[in-house]
Structures are given as structure tokens and as C-alpha cells.
Amino acid sequence: MIDLQRKHWLCIALVFLLFLSSLLSSYTPSPSLLKDCPPDTTSPSEPPTTHIFKNLNELSITHADEFNDLILITVLVRTSQINEVPDLLSLLGSLSYPLHRLDIAFLLTDATSGSHPVFEHMLSHNQHSFNSIVAYGKNMVTDLPKDKAHAFDLQPLMRAQLARARNYLTRSALKDEHQWILAMDVSLDHIPHDIIQQLMSVDVDVVVPNCMVKRDDGKIWGFEKSNWQDTELSLTITDNPQEDYIFMEGYWEMQTHRRLLVDMPTDADRHAKIPLDGIGSCFSLSKASIHRTGVIYPPFPYLHQIDTEGFAQMAKASGYGVYGLPGVLVLHSPEALDF
Q1: Sorted alphabetically, which keywords does the UniProt record give (predicted)?
Q2: What is the third-level CATH fold of 68-332?
Q3: Is 60 exceeded by the pLDDT of residue 34?
Q4: DSSP string of 183-202?
Q5: pLDDT digit string (tens) for 229-269?
Q6: Distance CA 184, CA 276 (A)
Q7: Whole-angstrom Cα distance, residue 141 to residue 138?
Q8: What is the C-alpha separation between 287 and 182, in angstroms, rounded?
Q9: How close are the terminal C-alpha atoms of the chain, in Å?
Q10: Backbone torsion region of residue 250, taken as left when φ is above 0, otherwise alpha when ψ lies between -120 and 50, otherwise beta
């Protein structure tokens, strides 16, 4: 009898607890009570860590024979050259290479508050279907008067500034998807519509065309004298200089007796490639993997070269091949100053 009474009261107690629990779960305090509650100081839970694996071996793969690799085009621009940008975009827009596989990156090297909107306005009116166009502004290059821009004594300083600007632009714009980098001057008058395919078809690490200039009398003259090949005589002349001495081409103050690409036959077969030891800034195509492995445009004397010529020396020292195509021509603007 006593056990039955205990079970009866236990059942009543259990029912009461369940009823009380349901009341508490549906209870919501009034706003006045919430207002007096201390704030919740607990921090939100941290987002989960993102785990990504990238096969970097694939970054070095190119498909030169398919002509569909993604290319990064890098261009340095001064404020005084902004008006040349639309003409350059028109030249690039006439290429037969798929435009949606071209990313264009500009670096305004002497950016001012007034130059930014002008540059942006010109880019916004581009009518071509490139994959992307991006412009950076970074004061990195001193804009010298025309009569001093090519002064021999100032070249090491100027080219060191340009080398830093090229490195800055390349590092800022290079993405994992890019397979080639096409570095070019803004002041070009003519490029063959299939120039990229011509350069890519030789499938080498670094390649340059022959950069010439068309004079007012219609004659074609050599322009880019920084595309060169060492000779026995030049190696003798340049042997054992001072540690920080820099050799430069195209100046009467310095005769190196190197073999220049502009002096080679321009009627050569367009696939005839010549090993080079130095290249210039006019027009060059290089595999992006070269830049990823640490080859730069040295802003300091590297094997007594600097900037683009130093880049060629560093690429060769790293085991890459550097070549020129004397039979493939691009024309530089005769009025413009060379970077």
C-alpha cells in the first residue's frame, strides 16, 4: 500500500515539473527587463579556417602552340604620355590574339591628383573587349626635361627608378592564372596583328622582336639598342671593370662593340631566333614562371647591367633562354622619348 502511494506522488511530481518546464521555456522577458541586463561580452565564434591546396607545378605550364594562354601586359606611363594610351589600346585591340585572354596593367609613375581622373576617363572609354584593364599610380620616376632625359651621366639613376617601377607593376598585377608577361612601351606606332603568336610560336623563356623606328623620310632605322649579343671583343672590353660599373648601349660615350639586334638582317625568317645577352624595354614576351622564381629587373648593378638588360642577365644566370627575332618588326614612335 505504501509503495503505491509513493508511486502516485512521484507521478504527480513528474507532471508538475514538466508543466513548470514548459512555462519557463515560453517565457520572454519584457523590454524593460532586457534593458537592464548586462551586455553580452562574449565574442562571436571565429570563422572556420579555410584550407586551400594549390599545385604550383601547374603555374609553369604554358601552351604556346594553342595561342590561348592568359597574358599580362604591363605598361609604364608618365603623365605627359597619358594621351598616348588610347592609341596603344587601339593597337592592342587590333591584335588577332583572343582579346579576352589579355589583362592590361598600367603604372602611372608620376601620379598627381590631376592625372588620375584624366587617366581613368581615357580607360573608361576603351571600346575593346580585353579581359581586364587596371591602372596603378605610384610616384617612382623623376620626369626630367627632354634635353636631360637621355643624358649619359643620368642613365644609371633613371634606369634604377624604372627597374623599381617595372618590378612594382609586375608584382602588383601578376596573378596565378597568368602564363606570360608582355612588357611594352606606351609609345608604339605599329605592331603586327599576329605579333603575340609570332613570339609565342618559338616557345622560349624570353623573346623580343626587332624594335625599329620609321623616320619622316620613310626609312626604317634601328631604335632599341638594348637588345644585344656579346662578342669576343665586347667581352674583352667589359672584362674586369669596377664592381659597381654599369655598361649601357646606344651612347657614343661608351663603345662596347656588342652585336645589336637592330643591326641584324630584318628580312630574316621570322622564326629565326638569335641568342641574346641583353634586352630593352620596347617589347618583350616572357614566361610568367620566370618572374615567380625571383628573376627581377635589378635596380642595382647586376653583372654590370641594370633594368631590362640586367633582367636578361639574371634570367640567363638562372638557366633561362633569352632570344631575339630580327625578322619580326615593331615600330616605335619617332616623337616619343624612350623609357
Answers
A1: Signal
A2: Spore Coat Polysaccharide Biosynthesis Protein SpsA; Chain A (3.90.550)
A3: no
A4: EE-S-EEE--TTHHHHHHHT
A5: 999 999 998 888 888 899 988 887 888 999 999 999 998 88
A6: 18
A7: 9
A8: 9
A9: 109
A10: left
Task: Tell me the pLDDT tens digit for each residue of 87-115.
Answer: 999 999 999 999 999 999 999 998 776 77
- Give the span between the Cα atoms of 140 and 269, in whole angstroms: 40
CA dihedral 188, 191, 103, 272 (to 10 degrees): -120
Grid coordinates given for 231:
662578342
Radius of gyration of the chain from Cα atoms?
Answer: 32
Taking the CA of residue 158 as centre, how many other CA atoms within 13 Å lie in the half-sphere pointing to its CB?
14
Q: Nearest CA to 283 among 222, 329, 334?
A: 329
Q: What would the grid cell of residue 155 be?
A: 642613365
One-letter identity of residue 138: K
Compute the half-sphere exposure of residue 152: CA atoms within 13 Å on the CB side of its CA: 10
Question: Domain locations in the chain?
Answer: 68-332
